[in-house]
Amino acid sequence: MFQLKSELSLISLNARGLRDITKRKRKNANVIFLQETHSKTEDCNFWSKQWGDKAYFCHGSSRSAGVAVLLKNFQGQIISHYKDQHGHWLILVVNFDTFNLVLINVYGYNNLSQNKFMLEDIAQNLGQIKQTYSTNNIIIGGDFNLVQDNYYDKWPSKYSMSHPNITFNTFCNEQHLMDIWRHLNPGTIKSSWFSSTNKSRLDYWLVANELLTNDIHSDISNSSQGGSSWRLKLLDKLDKMNIQKAEGAFVRSRAKWIEEGEKKYSLFL
């Protein structure tokens, strides 16, 4: 069982290119997944220095693909990383004391068959990583360019009821992953990509079943780049209880101070 000792916050965002300096500003999270970075090898050093903390890149071309993982005040230690030669996925293996965690940033293809091969490739790498690092703790995030359900996650839909995407759901079931936003928001309709005539939820946080003992929050918000950013927060339940106790103690202490202060003040009347 994997239990975090403090909050771990993640953001996933399709950057649509990072050459605009405004897109390389700091985000309020420990881990930032970026897709469509359009990065090249020669960009790494300069962009990493601008970021001011650890950054990992997997390059596509200057006009397509590319993913990156940026870290900020990150408590874990990166012990290994793997990347796709076409710039569509990046894997980090992280050690938190005695626990290992696998983080995967994904940018899917605009083609179903290519996405199927991509997920098979990720699954093959995951099988080796799980065995090598003795862990089933996995978080996958990013823009998959796939819908989880052709009714709930695609509008307009030609279906009148739930119609799961076989490719996507087979991958999740085989890897024991949960579409955590859907799990927390059953039946809710929300999009991460939209045009004048269509909307779809193409961005996901897939969380291993082993991590569900943590307190998890996931939401979507509009980004300054005109797209959507997806947040994921994991907070250890014990840590959450301690925070709640501390907040309660503060309230009680302030109430006592007010009461005692009023009594002392009355001496001067």
Describe this structure in words.
There is one protein chain. This protein is an alpha+beta fold and 269 residues long. It has 2 domains: 8-235, Endonuclease/exonuclease/phosphatase (Deoxyribonuclease I, Chain A, 4-Layer Sandwich); 237-269. The protein contains 5 helices and 15 strands. The chain has helices spanning 44-51, 112-133, 166-175, 180-184, 237-265, and strands spanning 8-14, 31-35, 55-58, 67-71, 77-83, 89-96, 99-107, 138-143, 154-155, 177-179, 193-194, 199-200, 203-208, 215-222, 228-235. The strands form 3 sheets. A 6-stranded mixed sheet has the order 3-4-2-1-15-14. Helix 2 runs parallel beside helix 3. The chain starts with 7 loop residues before the first strand and ends with a helix. 35% of the residues are buried.
How would you concisely characterize the structure shown here?
It is built from five helices and 15 strands. It has helices at residues 44-51, 112-133, 166-175, 180-184, 237-265, and strands spanning 8-14, 31-35, 55-58, 67-71, 77-83, 89-96, 99-107, 138-143, 154-155, 177-179, 193-194, 199-200, 203-208, 215-222, 228-235.
Percent helix, as a range, is: 25-40%
Number of strands: 15
Globular, elongated, flat, extended or rod-shaped: what is the shape?
globular
Rounded mean pLDDT is 84
Q: From the helix content, strand content and strand pairing, which structural class follows?
A: alpha+beta
CATH topology group of the largest domain: Deoxyribonuclease I, Chain A
Taken as a percent bin, the fraction of beta residues is 25-35%
- Given the structure, what is the number of helices? 5
Q: Helix and strand string, N-terminal first?
A: EEHEEEEEHEEHEHEEEEEH
- Largest pleated sheet: 6 strands, mixed
* CATH hierarchy, class of the largest domain: Alpha Beta
